[in-house]
UniProtKB/TrEMBL annotation, chains A, B:
GO cellular component: cytosol
Cofactors named for this entry: Mg(2+)
Native species: Gandjariella thermophila
One Gene Ontology molecular-function label: ribonucleoside triphosphate phosphatase activity
Summary of the function given for this chain in its UniProt record: Pyrophosphatase that catalyzes the hydrolysis of nucleoside triphosphates to their monophosphate derivatives, with a high preference for the non-canonical purine nucleotides XTP (xanthosine triphosphate), dITP (deoxyinosine triphosphate) and ITP. Seems to function as a house-cleaning enzyme that removes non-canonical purine nucleotides from the nucleotide pool, thus preventing their incorporation into DNA/RNA and avoiding chromosomal lesions.
Subunit structure: Homodimer.
Name of this protein: dITP/XTP pyrophosphatase
E.C. designation(s): 3.6.1.66
Length: 202, 202
């Protein structure tokens, strides 16, 4: 089995990434977490793009451990905000990781934005960095629009205000398997699957 | 004298607009404020651009009063935020007009953004709508970068965190005459001066 390090400290995101990779059943790959390797220094996320941040995280993990490493950077991209919160999604309300404050702030900012201009997407960049230093980075997008109030208890981040196209429920009202079938993170990871498979057979 | 209605309810912005127009000394023009005309309904600012919002305000004022009307829409455009807060500048922290909360939120959101990517601009669109329905809209920009903490007590809005190019002071540390010489609002209004002059001589 080829070990691949999944470099995320966000427990809910890690669950989702693992669940997707298990569903995709890449033969010959064993996914391990950061808790199974010695601690290493991680650079802050200061990139201007999701891709830069995903690559930086995967590079840190690969160079510290010698293992192939997968990392993602994800966020909400709001049309009426020219793509913001984007790479600032996690600290939109001014400090890191307060999901409730972040989504309430977005709703407040968009109070005067009419329904026809509330389009948005979840975006995920997923990077694979190999022990030989070669890199692959892919992007998955999930289009939808923003609700006027949060609904649902599943997922995390901005899930309670994101209504995927073709749905009336928010992504926090989908059950995890439904979300995994179509989410930005699933779409990105699926693009990495052939590359992970190639690692195993190399 | 041709009366021109300056359609703003923001007292500090109104001061600044009046000061600039007085300095520019457009002959034959008398600038009056919204307090000198009967109240009229004003549409909420829901445009996607500064220009749309400025035009909407000037149109409301011109059609309600029959006077030529000037209105502006202004905001802070942050490079690392793809141009946001932009048209949402006034309600960035989630409710309208809390300058302190708005600028502190921007500082919090940009905590991890390094100095070389803290470029920003103040942008002002100024619209003139004439009694015959003809319209002119212009744009002034003032480039600079964002400080890491607020400084200065002059001005309003995001002035305490905006450092104009070539300056070490924030725009809230400039005195009003210094700001008027170079600000986004001054640049936009100066572009309107010939149009206002033409009104007076028509």
């Amino acid at each position: 089995m080829t070990k691949v390090l999944l470099a995320s400290r966000n427990a809910k995101k890690l669950d989702e990434l693992r669940r997707i990779l298990v569903t995709e059943r890449v033969p010959g790959i064993e996914v391990i977490g950061l808790d199974e390797v010695p601690p290493f220094p991680e650079a802050p996320e200061t990139g201007a793009t999701f891709e830069e941040n995903a690559l930086a995280k995967a590079r840190d993990a690969a160079s510290a451990t010698g293992l192939p490493a997968v990392a993602d950077d994800s966020g909400l991209v709001v049309d009426a905000m020219h793509g913001m919160p984007g790479v600032l999604s996690a600290r939109w309300a001014g400090r890191h990781g307060d999901d409730q404050a972040n989504l309430e702030l977005v709703l407040g900012q968009l109070t005067d934005v009419p329904d026809e201009r509330r389009g948005a997407a979840f975006v995920c960049a997923a990077a694979l960095v190999r022990p030989d230093g070669s890199e692959t980075v892919v992007r998955g997008e999930w289009r939808g629009s923003l609700a006027r109030a949060p609904r649902g208890r599943n997922g995390f981040g901005y899930d309670p205000i994101f209504v995927p196209y073709g749905e009336t429920r928010t992504s926090a009202e989908l059950d995890p398997a439904e979300k995994d079938a179509v989410s930005h993170r699933a779409r990105a990871l699926r693009l990495l699957v052939p590359h992970l498979g190639a690692l195993a057979s190399a």
